[in-house]
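1st attempt posting a full record on here, be nice pls
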Amino acid sequence: MTSVKAAILGFGTVGQGIYNIVHERREHFKQTLGVEIEVAKILVRDASKVREGIDSSLFTESFDDILAIPDLEVVFEGIVGEDPAYGYLDQAIEKGCHVITANKVMFARYGQELQLKAKKKGVQVGYEATTAGGVPVIKTMQNLLRVNEVKQVQGILNGTSNYILTQMRAEELPFDVALKAAQDLGYAEADPHNDVSGEDAFRKLMILCALAFGEQPDWNKVEVVGIDGISSEQVEEAKAQGLRYRHVADAYRDEATGEIIAKVGPQLVGADHPLYAIDDVNNAVTLDTNYIGTLTMVGPGAGMYPTASVMMEDYADMLAKPEKAVSLA
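the predicted structure (as C-alpha cells):
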C-alpha cells in the first residue's frame, strides 16, 4: 500500500473539512485509490490553540516546516486572500508538490501563472473548489473543451447574494433584513461586502474566463454591480411580471473583435431562462457550447463538505491520471 503525505494550509472551514474527509474515508481511499493519505502537517496562525481530537504536533505556524516534510506529495490550500497564499503555493510547486486550492481571490490573479509553473515542474494544480463549491464546473468544462468551444458562460456564482434575492422575493423581506438572515445562518460574513458588491462573483468569473477562453478580459473593463441597490419595490414589481432578479456573472468572446466581454450584476430573468429556478444558496453555471448546446450545472456553492470534497476529488483525479497535468484551457 502506497502512503502519500499531504499538508493543509489553513484550518478554517475548508481545512477542517479536508482533514475530516481524509480520516473518515481512509479505508475507502485505500480501496478506491490504492493509497493511504497521511496529513503530515497543518499550517495555522496559532499552533498553541487546543483542537480536540487532533494531535497538537501536526500544527505549525511556519511554512518552512511544511517544505521540510520528507516526500511531501500534495498541498491543500484554504487560506483567505492573495498573500501569503500565492507565495506558499509557488514554493510548494517549486518543491515538486501537487497543489489544490479553494482560494478564488488568489487564483483569479495568479492561477494561470501557477499552472504554467506546475506544468514545467511536472506537477498538477487543482482548483475546482475556487468557483462554485460543490458544482463540478471546472472538470466539466475541461472535458467539454476537448471537443467543444464554449461561446458564453453565465452563472450565479455567489450563494449569499442568491439567498438574499430569494428571501426578498419569496418572503417579501427588505434587503437589510434578508442580509441579516443570511448572516444569522452563517451564509454571509460579518462584513458582507465581497458578496453583495459582486466582487466575489467577479473573481470566480475571471477564473472561468481563463479556462473557457484561454485568457481573461481586462479587469478594468469589467462592469461589476452588486445587489445592495435592489429595493423591495423592484423585486415586487418584477415578481408581478413573472420575472426574478438574479445576480449574474456573464462572459463571452465578441466574434467581430475577438475581445472577451464580461460583466457582473443583477439581471431580470423569465421562466425560460436557465437561471430562473435557482434559489437560496445554490450556485449555477450555464455554458453555451457549439456542439452540445446549452448545459446548466446546479449545486451548493459553499460549505465545509461541498468545498472540501471537490478538493479531494481533484487529488483523486491526479492519482488516476498522474501523467496528465491540468491544462490552462
